[in-house]
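Just scan my protein:

. . .
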Amino acid sequence: MLFQGKFTEGKDAFDNRITKLFGIQYPIIQAGMIWASGWRLASAVSNAGGLGLIGAGSMYPETLREHIRKCKAATHEPFGVNLPLLYPDIDKHIAIIIEEKVPIVFTSAGNPKTWTSTLKEHGIKVVHVVSSSKFARKCQEAGVDAVVAEGFEAGGHNGREETTTLCLIPSVRKAISIPLIAAGGIATGRAMYSMMALGAEGVQVGSRFVCTPEASSHEEFKNIILAANEGDTVLTLKELTPVRLIKNEFYKKVQQAEDACASKEELEQLLGRGRAKKGMFEGDLEEGELEIGQVSSLISSILPAGEVVKDLWDEFIVTAESPFRY
């Protein structure tokens, strides 16, 4: 076997550092995506044996509290919250997470030293998302319990290094000793197997879970993902915060502005406020920001989140038994 861990319960579960850390059946984590990952999606993934995450980045503090409470009512399995550290009301979010006794927090877009010790003092397991070995080492020094290494293929906000997941995972594996989760371009069990063969101990899956009934993203956004082909997404807005988008009219405006050497201030004005909500939550496919990963070209159906988890796991098992069969 090429990866660390072992099948248990007749291959209906897996035992390694990630499943032990979170108390889950499968080393499959649903990414906490803005405008997609509410309590319905998170609870469905957790009920299916993975780890569901509520995406706090698009929520006001009291909205986050509501989703946490509804998730608790919908599942007795572990779940967590994904928290971008650049969120303006971060202190209020942290307070709610502690008050509501959320067991797991995935942080991103900021310095893990800022809040990791506070969360861990309250018994919360902390995982941070990075895009390079350098920042993975800093996370380990900050005391996080695990790291998500997210490659260039991923949707949404991305690293400036543009390192692909295939190159990133073995590099980060050499750099740290704590548990490692792979993200970016993973939507199948075969991809999951390949990441774990490279040194990951679990996978974080985003784009595939957007195309589920439980995801709160707009149906039109889901449909445009199903129609996406190779090359239909692009990493843009690198002068601000790099983000991978489906090409549409808004993207064309961004490209024209960048070609004209627009300043950072001009790009901020073009981006405006609520552009992601307009696209992914309200379904404006022309003027909205449509964040999704390169792997969207492999997604061809809308399936319940529980079936997505099952399909990933079943294909992972088949690949582990015969990795060269396709």
